[in-house]
């Protein structure tokens, strides 16, 4: 007599098409079926109860949250549907928790969170920052001074998960360049780091680090504002002039310490209660300290 099959473990998922293609979802679904796991793609325009029941929901809704902030009615309806489902079904494991994901949506909130959890750390920090909500030059100048944000300054879009626009940034070298910032934005002190970016990818208790190109060292002065796309300059094969160190810059950079990376991963996993994270880290060329400049959900 055949043994009764154990009921499948059902995972609902919502990923955008780009993410689905990257993962090869069809092959993934087949591999999961062989392990008695059913993957069910969610229709975020329909009641989720009618598509379940689920044991787990895996999602990347940062773009939907960003669209909802822009008053997109469909996106707003979709995220509310998922939030309400999560509230009504605490037994369903949501990866990752929606309150934690929301904390990483707005850069101001992310950096405030990092500043708080790192306040007693002598080795790891997040660079000084401030929100610039207005185009008034005098107001922004005062805000930068009060928050100890020093030039050069990186101006970053307010929202971190809003698609291509979220990567459009500018390096401002002096007070005159403040007007070049597209507001509202977050202005953050630029940390010289020898054009090396460390990207930490976190999957539960496991993590790995990938070294990517980054912006060259910059110094305050009379240069014109540099506009760039952070995704483009940090691609593995990037050959932008913005990646090339000047001859005067020292090349004997501090060596990365895996123990510090592990401490960063452990701290953020525990404080955010998240399992899928991307963490961007630079090492200050002058002090050797580790600066966290970005944290993303489900990279």
UniProtKB/TrEMBL annotation:
<dbReference type="InterPro" id="IPR008656">
    <property type="entry name" value="Inositol_tetrakis-P_1-kinase"/>
</dbReference>
<feature type="binding site">
    <location>
        <position position="280"/>
    </location>
    <ligand>
        <name>Mg(2+) 1</name>
    </ligand>
</feature>
<feature type="binding site">
    <location>
        <position position="296"/>
    </location>
    <ligand>
        <name>1D-myo-inositol 1,3,4-trisphosphate</name>
    </ligand>
</feature>
<keyword id="KW-0547">Nucleotide-binding</keyword>
<protein>
    <submittedName>
        <fullName>Inositol-tetrakisphosphate 1-kinase</fullName>
        <ecNumber>2.7.1.1</ecNumber>
    </submittedName>
</protein>
<keyword id="KW-0808">Transferase</keyword>
<feature type="binding site">
    <location>
        <position position="107"/>
    </location>
    <ligand>
        <name>ATP</name>
    </ligand>
</feature>
<feature type="binding site">
    <location>
        <position position="296"/>
    </location>
    <ligand>
        <name>Mg(2+) 2</name>
    </ligand>
</feature>
<feature type="binding site">
    <location>
        <position position="199"/>
    </location>
    <ligand>
        <name>1D-myo-inositol 1,3,4-trisphosphate</name>
    </ligand>
</feature>
<feature type="binding site">
    <location>
        <position position="294"/>
    </location>
    <ligand>
        <name>Mg(2+) 1</name>
    </ligand>
</feature>
<feature type="binding site">
    <location>
        <position position="19"/>
    </location>
    <ligand>
        <name>1D-myo-inositol 1,3,4-trisphosphate</name>
    </ligand>
</feature>
<keyword id="KW-0479">Metal-binding</keyword>
<dbReference type="GO" id="GO:0052725">
    <property type="term" value="F:inositol-1,3,4-trisphosphate 6-kinase activity"/>
</dbReference>
<feature type="compositionally biased region" description="Polar residues">
    <location>
        <begin position="232"/>
        <end position="242"/>
    </location>
</feature>
<keyword id="KW-0460">Magnesium</keyword>
<dbReference type="GO" id="GO:0005737">
    <property type="term" value="C:cytoplasm"/>
</dbReference>
<dbReference type="GO" id="GO:0004396">
    <property type="term" value="F:hexokinase activity"/>
</dbReference>
<dbReference type="GO" id="GO:0047325">
    <property type="term" value="F:inositol-3,4,5,6-tetrakisphosphate 1-kinase activity"/>
</dbReference>
<dbReference type="Pfam" id="PF05770">
    <property type="entry name" value="Ins134_P3_kin"/>
</dbReference>
<keyword id="KW-0418">Kinase</keyword>
<feature type="binding site">
    <location>
        <begin position="188"/>
        <end position="199"/>
    </location>
    <ligand>
        <name>ATP</name>
    </ligand>
</feature>
<dbReference type="GO" id="GO:0000287">
    <property type="term" value="F:magnesium ion binding"/>
</dbReference>
<feature type="region of interest" description="Disordered">
    <location>
        <begin position="232"/>
        <end position="254"/>
    </location>
</feature>
<feature type="binding site">
    <location>
        <position position="167"/>
    </location>
    <ligand>
        <name>1D-myo-inositol 1,3,4-trisphosphate</name>
    </ligand>
</feature>
<dbReference type="InterPro" id="IPR041429">
    <property type="entry name" value="ITPK1_N"/>
</dbReference>
<dbReference type="InterPro" id="IPR040464">
    <property type="entry name" value="InsP(3)kin_ATP-grasp"/>
</dbReference>
<keyword id="KW-0067">ATP-binding</keyword>
<comment type="similarity">
    <text>Belongs to the ITPK1 family.</text>
</comment>
<feature type="domain" description="Inositol 1,3,4-trisphosphate 5/6-kinase ATP-grasp">
    <location>
        <begin position="120"/>
        <end position="299"/>
    </location>
</feature>
<dbReference type="Pfam" id="PF17927">
    <property type="entry name" value="Ins134_P3_kin_N"/>
</dbReference>
<feature type="binding site">
    <location>
        <position position="214"/>
    </location>
    <ligand>
        <name>ATP</name>
    </ligand>
</feature>
<feature type="domain" description="Inositol-tetrakisphosphate 1-kinase N-terminal">
    <location>
        <begin position="10"/>
        <end position="100"/>
    </location>
</feature>
<dbReference type="GO" id="GO:0052726">
    <property type="term" value="F:inositol-1,3,4-trisphosphate 5-kinase activity"/>
</dbReference>
<dbReference type="GO" id="GO:0005524">
    <property type="term" value="F:ATP binding"/>
</dbReference>
<dbReference type="GO" id="GO:0032957">
    <property type="term" value="P:inositol trisphosphate metabolic process"/>
</dbReference>
<feature type="binding site">
    <location>
        <position position="60"/>
    </location>
    <ligand>
        <name>1D-myo-inositol 1,3,4-trisphosphate</name>
    </ligand>
</feature>
<feature type="binding site">
    <location>
        <position position="294"/>
    </location>
    <ligand>
        <name>Mg(2+) 2</name>
    </ligand>
</feature>
<feature type="binding site">
    <location>
        <position position="156"/>
    </location>
    <ligand>
        <name>ATP</name>
    </ligand>
</feature>
